[in-house]
Design brief:
This protein has 191 residues and is mainly beta. The chain is built from 3 helices and 13 strands. The strands form 3 sheets. It has an 8-stranded mixed β-sheet, with no helix packed on it. Strands 8-13-10 form a 3-stranded antiparallel β-sheet. A hairpin with a 2-residue loop joins strand 11 (136-140) and strand 12 (143-153).
């Protein structure tokens, strides 16, 4: 599971909540996740060993990372985090990219989901790359809800000299739509 909920308020506040359940399928994944850097406030963090024992991390480091005990192929890591920020103004809206396949090429995703809530009057530009689907869009009580969901994303295989993940893997980004009238005159005149 790889799920993120992004909530943008009318005043420009941003809250992002992330919930991930990661199944380690290889020794390479075990090595990669033994030190887990986390941004934001940790709401929940645990490891379930292949034999079902639930373990807590040994402690966070000053750099925001955690050492995870009991990792082995077949283990599950569950992490929930939350972070908040203030967007300076509507013009600064830029969310993503959110990837629907692991951009580190380590794990498959059983389900990836990105849900975005923002004021309905904001008309953002939605960028989709790598075959990302159209979002489901609904409006209720002045809030636009955009939701993407993909089930069964396999682990992507890296290749030599491949383009960056944001140009290849399915991902979505939201940013403020720029109108031609907002372009400075010296740029719009082609000088």
């Amino acid at each position: 599971l790889d799920q993120m909920v992004s909530i943008v308020t009318e005043a420009g506040g941003l809250t992002e909540m992330v919930h991930q359940i990661i199944r380690l399928e290889s020794q390479q994944a075990v090595d990669q996740y033994s030190q887990l850097p986390i941004s934001g406030e940790v709401i929940e963090l645990s490891v379930t060993t292949p034999d079902g024992v639930v373990l807590e991390p040994t402690g966070g480091s000053s750099g925001g990372g955690f050492t995870l005990p009991g990792l082995a192929p077949g283990a599950l890591i569950e992490v929930r985090t939350e972070r908040s920020a203030d967007l300076p103004r509507e013009q600064a809206l830029e969310l993503g990219p959110f990837f629907f396949q692991d951009p580190n090429f380590l794990v498959a995703f059983h389900r990836t989901e990105w849900i975005v809530h923002l004021p309905d009057r904001w008309d953002p530009e939605i960028l989709r790359r790598g075959g990302a689907p159209e979002p489901e869009s609904t409006v209720r009580n002045g809030v636009r809800r955009l939701a993407w969901r993909i089930d069964g994303s396999p682990r992507a295989e890296p290749e030599p000299f491949m383009p960056p993940p944001e140009h290849l893997l399915p991902n979505a980004q939201i940013r403020r739509r720029v109108e031609w009238a907002e372009v400075p005159p010296d740029l719009s005149a082609g000088t």
